[in-house]
């Protein structure tokens, strides 16, 4: 089971599945139903973004990387690249079945991805903090693209949920480099932690988490009276659980560092919305 879990993590299948679950969750909150073509498009987009990013890292790496995923993509570079090409073609074919309004929002996502890949791997603007921020924007926007495209208008609740979710994603992307600091340093890989230090990143993650808790509480107090009660009250517990899990990672770093438990929890929080979907 552990080998299977590692394989799933190396292939970014857990991240892809989590994104699809979160998008279904957001759609349920907004009262819309996603078509199969939208779920396929999201899965293809998220998997390709992560896989291409890992392939670029593997290509520029020399020898065996200290990062588990980089090592995997170095070893199986050609087979993974071939599968990525097939998945890309599936995505192109799937465009025919997507509503035009969804495709238009998807083009914005594609532009963000080009900026991310281009600045990070082609222009090599690595000595900045943009990597984690752009990745959080892309992941969050990718999850919201399909649900947003089905809404006739975007109300306060829509923007509110996006902000809360985005803060969860950016905190997740700040915490992971803290646990991978030694591997990144030994493998000469840059991250926000190698650039600014663990103390700075820990403070930033803590402040974001604290603000997110306040946002959730404010939503309960101020948004609930104007929104349908069931819609918000049945969702804020999920968002709070996701935020709390990240806070636990920050509080007990030694425990979650062992056996890469941090990855299981950090990636696992995006499966929490499945609880809401099954209720």
Automatic annotation (TrEMBL):
The chain crosses the membrane at residues 12-31, 37-56, 76-99, 105-126, 133-151, 157-179, 200-225, 237-255. Signal peptide: none annotated. The keyword Transmembrane helix applies. The keyword Transmembrane applies. Keywords: Membrane, Transmembrane, Transmembrane helix. This is Prenyltransferase. It comes from Roseivirga echinicomitans. The lineage of its organism: Bacteria, Pseudomonadati, Bacteroidota, Cytophagia, Cytophagales.
């Amino acid at each position: 089971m552990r080998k299977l879990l590692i394989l799933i993590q190396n292939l970014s299948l857990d991240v892809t599945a989590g994104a699809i679950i979160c998008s279904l969750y957001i759609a349920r909150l907004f009262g819309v139903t996603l078509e199969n073509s939208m779920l396929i498009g999201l899965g293809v987009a998220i998997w390709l973004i992560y896989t291409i990013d890992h392939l670029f890292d593997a290509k520029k790496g020399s020898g065996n990387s200290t990062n588990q995923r980089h090592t995997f993509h170095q070893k199986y570079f050609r087979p993974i690249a071939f599968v990525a090409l097939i998945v890309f073609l599936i995505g192109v074919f799937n465009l025919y079945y997507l509503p035009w309004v969804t495709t238009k929002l998807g083009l914005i996502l594609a532009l963000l991805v080009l900026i991310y890949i281009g600045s990070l791997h082609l222009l090599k603007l690595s000595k900045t903090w943009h990597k984690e921020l752009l990745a959080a924007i892309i992941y969050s926007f990718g999850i919201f693209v399909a649900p947003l495209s089905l809404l006739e208008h975007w109300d306060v609740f829509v923007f509110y949920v996006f902000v809360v979710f985005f803060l969860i994603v950016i905190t997740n992307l700040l915490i992971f480099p803290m646990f991978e600091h030694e591997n990144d340093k030994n493998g000469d890989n840059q991250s926000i932690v190698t650039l600014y230090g663990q103390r700075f990143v820990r403070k930033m993650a803590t402040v974001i988490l604290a603000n997110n808790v306040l946002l959730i509480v404010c939503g309960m107090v101020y948004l609930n009276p104007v929104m349908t009660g069931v819609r918000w009250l049945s969702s804020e517990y999920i968002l709070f659980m996701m935020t709390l899990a990240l806070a636990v990672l920050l509080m007990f770093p030694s425990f979650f560092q062992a056996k890469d438990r941090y990855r299981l929890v950090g990636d696992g929080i995006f499966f929490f919305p499945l609880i809401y979907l099954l209720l």
